[in-house]
Amino acid sequence: MKSFDEIYGKIRAGSMKTAAVAAAGDDAVLSAVVKAKEIGICDSILVGDGEKIREIAGHEGLDVSGFRVIEEKDPKKAALVAASLVRNGEAHMLMKGLVDTASLLKAVLDKENGLRKGDLISHVGVFEIKGYDRLLVVTDAAFTIAPTLKEKKAILENAVDFMHSLGVDVPKVAPVCAVEVVNEAMPATLDASMLSKMNERGQIKGCIVDGPLALDNAISIEAAEHKGIKGEVAGRADILLMPNIEAGNVLYKAFTYTADCRLGAILLGAKAPVILTSRADSFESKVNSMALAAMQAMAQEGVF
């Protein structure tokens, strides 16, 4: 799949999944939840202050009468309840409402009712950029601050597994650095080289990894050819594996605010997808993020 429209179509062809929304009393989140159900992306269970949810819905002209509402006024407890709904199979994904990120993640990692399965949790941002013939994934822009080589391998594998759910059988991965040559003064280039070698030897499967690559050589065939850089990934990367959270966050926001694009983002590595949107995210990106989570949930169930 190369666009969000294709993702929407694939989801509608399957059975509708359900999101558990933690602290759902938020106008932007409720708008996205209603729209997602309206267009057949996913249903939702709303956990939060029922009176506030209905008040906001009335003010915004939203019909929430068809949603199950679970009463829990405390946002932190609402996060725990929502996570337990996913863990128990009543919902297929967890979505952040009007609760702080730390509390939501604490619920995800809760030993009794959470969604942790032992894998590294990482963030993927998916961009449909005008002029590109494919979706671009940026990881990790929001979760792992300064990943070690081992953590980069896990972040990479999370993203590859996710790309498989989008129908990209052998995604091309570019470990992005400032330069495209190994330089011992730049540790990220050493990690990139080792990840490439691990892929070559079968320690990282289901993808093609080639790096280090500077950003221009990862996404522009013209730039790669101009510099004489050859290989299957050069200029054709599907996944941009960033060296640290600063670089990832800067690139994510640069794409968001300067490119003509559509985007969505989720957390991977838990027992179920986690939709971790912020109030700064556009309405469309919230709905897109729900679509990405639904795709991942379908893939985890072996739907395709």
UniProtKB/TrEMBL annotation:
Pfam family, one: PTA_PTB
Protein name (database record): Phosphate butyryltransferase
Organism: Youngiibacter fragilis 232.1
Gene3D superfamilies assigned: Isopropylmalate Dehydrogenase
Domain Phosphate acetyl/butaryl transferase: 77-294
EC number(s) per entry: 2.3.1.19
Source lineage: Bacteria, Bacillati, Bacillota, Clostridia, Eubacteriales
InterPro entries registered for this protein in UniProt: P_Ac_Bu_trans, Phos_Acetyltrans/Butyryltrans, Phosphate_butyryltransferase, PTA_PTB
Protein family (similarity comment): Belongs to the phosphate acetyltransferase and butyryltransferase family.
Gene Ontology biological process: butyrate metabolic process
Keywords, sorted A to Z: Acyltransferase, Transferase
SUPFAM superfamilies (alphabetical): Isocitrate/Isopropylmalate dehydrogenase-like
Signal peptide start and end residues: none
Domain of life, per lineage: Bacteria
GO molecular function, one term: phosphate butyryltransferase activity
